Amino acid sequence: MGAAVAVALLTAGCGSGASSGSSDSAVLSAGTASPESASALSEDSASASPSASPDEESTTPSPEESEEPEESSPEAEEESATPEADDGSTGADTAAEGPSGTYDVTITGVAGGRSFNRAGTLRILGTISESGTTNGVNPVDVCLVSGSPAARPEAGAIWFGSNSGCNPGAGAARLDLAYVTAYGSTVTVEPDQRIAATLGNHYTVSSGLAACPFAPVSGSMRVTASGGRLTGRMDIMGYGGAFCGQTRYQADLTGSAR
């Protein structure tokens, strides 16, 4: 009986000691960190910091890399390649507005009461004078030449145009002589009375030394050019000075492009 009691007490004491040891170990683990645990904790904290990794830093574009050069548009390249005029006059052989070209024409009409039928040349060019004009810039320039009225007067001989530069035989250079309007393939020319005295435009109604040159002061010439063909009509009044007075020039024009 005594031996059994002793064994029971010994067993209870050993169990109590084991529990106490476990409790002490738990307290030690919770309150005191070992050097190895502290080192591991420091490494875990460093890895959890918000600093970017080398790979993340390398993917961040620099200001130089983020700016891409601007590419010029095709429209800008075309505008930069368009040449600009250097002076106020172009003298172009083609018209920006309306028809253009050189036409061999037949002029049939009446001048000063005398009938005539004669050959001539009509030219339609691009604007000759863009500055120095007193009657507006002409959208196109037109000139009709038949014979030489001043040097060899004949019935129906005429020089009539919007700019003296259109007529190769005119002495004055690029003198704007008329008002011009262009609509589609039709061009209308009206003489400027203020410049009539220059005789840049003139015609004759007869032959001989006594023939007066008449300077157009009113009226118009209208021509239509399309498909290589030209038709027109002119009806102008000219002034020949105090001795010759005024006379009328009426004619129809037909022709084809050269």
Structural class determined from secondary elements: alpha+beta
> Can you give the helix content as a percent range?
25-40%
The ordered string of helix (H) and strand (E) elements is HHHHHEEEEEEEEEHE
Query: Strand tally, please?
Result: 10
Euclidean distance between termini CA atoms: 152 Å
Our count of helices gives: 6
Give the radius of gyration: 52 Å
Q: What's the average pLDDT?
A: 75
Strand order of the largest sheet: 5-6-8-9-10-1-2-3-4-7
The share of residues in extended strands comes to: 25-35%
Which regions contain 5 or more consecutive residues with pLDDT less than 50?
A: 1-67, 74-93
Largest sheet: 10 strands, antiparallel
| Molecular shape | globular
Structure description:
This protein is an alpha+beta fold and 258 residues long. Strands 5-6-8-9-10-1-2-3-4-7 form a 10-stranded antiparallel sheet, with no helix packed on it. The chain has helices at residues 2-31, 35-47, 54-59, 63-66, 74-81, 241-244, and strands at 101-111, 114-126, 140-146, 158-161, 178-183, 186-191, 202-203, 215-226, 229-239, 246-257. The model is unreliable at 1-67 and 74-93 (pLDDT under 50).
